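Work Package 4 report. The design task specified in the project plan requires that, given a folded chain encoded as structure tokens, an amino acid be chosen for each position. We show below one input record used in the internal validation round.
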């Protein structure tokens, strides 16, 4: 056994309330009384050679909380990190590629790892004592001294359930490794075991805790790796013990006794062991190893195979004394099962490393699987954890109601505004983790649905209409912000019980030349999605898909259905399969048909992944944008209202604050096209370059007008308000110039040639009015220079975008305009009108290689 206390693992000398190790075994997360979460290089803690090398130690410091951090936990897939605090909030983080930056106003150096705060969970009214992830890493549960437990959909931020059966502070949570039970420990001297299928209490355990002493803020307890024992804490009946409660009977099978003060933490190693060869001891098939921490500042290590006799209590392997000056608070085992890390109220961390000769040999994966199969059967189903927390759940013996019904919109539609949250959750519980491919008229689908147990709860269905609009379906279902890569929700509340977030669209028909108007309806029932195409009210054809349909999009060339499993099935207007099922990777949040290119389909998943396909040519038009997921647009409280496609074929996202963002193909980033949230936010459009208002002003002007009308006013923090005031105090000329510069860049990003030419002339006219020769010369040089900073021009939407960093030579067209002609007719004609800039105009005229007086019209951009 090796014991160490790395002094550099610290939270400024304050208490370390939480420790957790990622399943990958590479990181340690600690939460402390200094209000921070710190992420450490675990190798530097466990290995002295790494510690003394140049390898990094502290990987990141997260400062989202305002009070002490009480818990920090990695998801089981190591993808996310969640933290809870005395400020009554829980936060979700995700590690992203790229360079991290230091927090604004902080003197700390930038983090070595780029951990991004993607969501805040608000729901508790007081301090959060603990949090825990479900084994599937999709559900998060928090408990608080407000006596409640909240079950969260971690990926969408939805508050699925509130459990309020405890009568006092809830101080600890433990999730059964098999996923079927969640246990909660409370100051009401009880543990409640909850069934995660329906969140009903299975057992309320009080006997071991009747004389428990309320001496600690947190109670950390856990299950054995096979889920057979729940190791509880703070038992005093009549002596201080940590009882091992047997699964099912929930009776105490063993007592871990010997501590002189209340036990506050108990953690089982995540591995089962074969005991070492000891002649005097019986040799069971496998055993668990348990670490117990007490208010007496000691930590004891136990093994379930070390017994003095048939009726004797379990004996400890070792007792660690003098590790801490104050009691331990939390403990965590490394994934290999041999190392224990413990934190204390004295602000230190201890590392204890065991050998195989002390604990035994770890069971191999086949041995562990065989053991679990013996306990629970070979076909164990991992349950889901988010059945809906509302009145839509009916009793098991009630007949199945029809499930949600969706009707597809027309040529430009984005899919239904609403999906049945109850049935979505039910589907999530019943579907395999990676979903099932959509199938055509699969008889086994109906049989499988009919064979499902009658004990499952069913949601009352409702018919949903997905309607299109001529603008590409801009009023689509809202996308909830918060996260991370942020999770985007594809569901909306039941309109019967909640106020509508988005007004429903009118039904738009699927139109085809030479045929009558058609509508597409999708009805989810009994595990099948039935797509029905009607012509003038009469059914034209029908198509069945296995699973739950969430989104539908139609164009004159195809009908596309997005499934909750992430599959997208594309059909012809006559019901023929055009493509095999496409896997988006997660459930679709938006499905949009391109108004200008009827063979193109845009899809955005609930995880922010964006894809665009041409179903006619079997090509992916846009797919390599993982560096700029849709979730990057979402700050706290915002939602994505709709996804659009620009006239140039690029994805557009409209947010709830009215802003419109374009995913630029060469910048590989979202750029602001319309709205108020930009560095030049206070410079609202003060001028109308067309002179005729919004009519006929182009795509950018239309989007800007709609953004202003749809903007949601928000309260500004004091610093932001003062900054806005300072900007408004700028001169009118400066504001006009900044607005013109911004519009010029946005027109270029949007590939809008007419608006680019119009704003270029407007900008030149303002500079000439102000006799701003420096900016005018820079503008003229930019249009003439072969080393121009402008990216390679795009001739219409069909042109291929250049690679990053490409430059354009003079004479090549920009958005359909020749650069020298832009200079001649868009800039110089404005300069000659002002006496102060005529000399510059003549100088630039001499540098032109085309006649100054010849008329020019813009080249029509090519469109597919």
């Amino acid at each position: 056994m090796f014991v160490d206390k790395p002094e550099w693992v610290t939270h400024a000398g304050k208490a370390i309330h939480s420790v957790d190790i990622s399943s990958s075994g590479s990181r340690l997360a600690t939460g402390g009384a200094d209000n921070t979460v710190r992420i450490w290089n675990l190798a530097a803690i466990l290995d002295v050679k790494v510690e003394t090398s140049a390898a990094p130690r502290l990987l990141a410091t997260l400062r989202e909380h305002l009070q002490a951090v009480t818990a920090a936990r990695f998801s089981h897939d190591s993808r996310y990190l969640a933290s809870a605090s005395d400020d009554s909030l829980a936060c979700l983080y995700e590690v992203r590629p790229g360079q991290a930056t230091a927090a604004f106003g902080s003197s700390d150096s930038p983090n070595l790892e780029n951990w991004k705060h993607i969501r805040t969970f608000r729901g508790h009214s007081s301090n959060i004592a603990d949090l825990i992830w479900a084994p599937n890493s999709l559900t998060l549960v928090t408990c608080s001294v407000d006596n409640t437990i909240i079950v969260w959909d971690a990926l969408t931020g939805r508050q699925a359930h509130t459990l309020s059966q405890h009568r006092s502070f809830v101080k600890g949570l433990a999730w059964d490794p098999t996923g079927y039970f969640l246990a909660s420990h409370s100051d009401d001297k009880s543990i409640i075991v909850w069934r995660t299928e329906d969140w009903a209490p299975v057992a309320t355990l009080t006997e071991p805790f009747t004389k428990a002493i309320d001496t600690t803020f947190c109670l950390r307890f856990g299950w054995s790796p096979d889920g057979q024992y729940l190791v509880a804490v703070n038992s005093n009946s009549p002596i201080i013990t940590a009882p091992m409660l047997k699964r099912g009977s929930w009776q105490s099978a063993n007592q871990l006794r010997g501590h002189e003060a209340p036990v506050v933490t108990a953690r089982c190693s995540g591995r089962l062991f074969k005991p070492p060869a000891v002649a005097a001891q019986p040799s069971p098939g496998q055993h668990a190893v348990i670490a117990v921490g007490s208010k007496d500042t000691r930590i004891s290590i136990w093994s379930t195979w070390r017994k003095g006799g048939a009726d004797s209590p379990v004996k400890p392997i070792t007792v660690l004394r003098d590790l801490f000056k104050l009691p331990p608070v939390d403990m965590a085992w490394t994934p290999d099962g041999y190392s224990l890390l413990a934190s204390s109220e004295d602000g230190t961390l201890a590392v204890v490393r065991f050998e195989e000769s002390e604990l035994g040999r770890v069971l191999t994966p086949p041995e562990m699987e065989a053991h679990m199969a013996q306990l629970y059967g070979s076909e164990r189903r991992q349950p889901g954890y988010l059945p809906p927390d509302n009145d839509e759940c009916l009793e098991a013996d009630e007949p199945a109601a029809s499930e949600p019904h969706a009707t597809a919109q027309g040529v430009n539609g984005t899919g239904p505004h609403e999906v049945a949250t109850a049935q979505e959750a039910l589907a999530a519980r019943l579907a395999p983790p990676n979903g099932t491919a959509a199938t055509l008229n699969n008889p086994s689908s109906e049989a499988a649905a009919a064979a499902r147990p009658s004990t499952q709860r069913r949601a009352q269905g409702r018919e949903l209409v997905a309607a299109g609009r001529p603008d590409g379906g801009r009023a689509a279902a809202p996308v909830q912000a918060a996260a991370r890569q942020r999770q985007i929700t594809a569901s909306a509340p039941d309109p019967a019980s909640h106020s509508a977030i988005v007004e429903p669209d009118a039904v738009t028909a699927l139109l085809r030349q030479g045929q009558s108007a058609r509508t597409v309806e999708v009805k989810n029932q009994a595990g099948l999605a039935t797509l029905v195409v009607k012509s003038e009210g009469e059914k034209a054809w029908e198509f069945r898909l296995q699973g739950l349909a969430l989104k539908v999009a139609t164009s004159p060339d195809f009908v596309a259905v997005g499934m909750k499993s992430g599959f997208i099935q594309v059909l012809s207007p006559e019901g023929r399969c055009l493509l095999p099922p496409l896997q988006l990777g997660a459930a679709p949040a938006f499905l949009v048909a391109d108004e200008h290119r009827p063979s193109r389909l845009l899809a955005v998943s609930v995880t922010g992944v964006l894809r665009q396909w041409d179903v006619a040519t079997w090509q992916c038009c846009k797919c390599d944008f993982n560096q700029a997921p849709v979730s990057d647009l979402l700050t706290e409280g915002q939602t994505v209202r709709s996804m659009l496609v620009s006239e140039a074929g690029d994805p557009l996202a409209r947010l709830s604050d009215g802003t419109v963002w374009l995913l630029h193909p060469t910048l590989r980033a979202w750029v602001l096209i319309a709205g108020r949230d930009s560095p030049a936010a206070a410079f609202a459009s003060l001028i109308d370059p067309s002179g005729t208002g919004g009519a006929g002003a182009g795509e950018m002007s239309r989007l800007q007008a709609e953004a202003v009308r749809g903007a949601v006013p928000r309260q500004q923090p004091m610093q932001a308000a003062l900054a806005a005031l300072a900007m408004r105090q700028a001169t009118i000329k400066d504001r006009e110039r900044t607005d013109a510069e911004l519009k010029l860049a946005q027109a270029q990003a949007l590939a809008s040639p007419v608006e680019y030419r119009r704003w270029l002339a407007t900008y030149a006219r303002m500079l000439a009015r102000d006799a701003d020769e420096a900016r005018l010369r820079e503008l003229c040089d930019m249009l003439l220079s072969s080393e121009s900073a402008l990216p390679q021009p795009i001739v219409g939407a069909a042109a291929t975008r250049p690679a990053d960093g490409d430059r354009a030579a003079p004479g090549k067209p920009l958005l359909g305009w020749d650069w020298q002609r832009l200079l001649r007719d868009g800039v110089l004609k404005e300069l000659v009108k002002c006496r102060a800039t005529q000399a510059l105009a003549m100088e630039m005229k001499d540098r032109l290689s085309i006649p100054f007086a010849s008329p020019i019209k813009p080249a029509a951009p090519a469109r597919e």
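The domain at 405-444+458-645 is CATH 2.40.128.630 (Lipocalin). Validation will be extended to a larger panel in the next phase.
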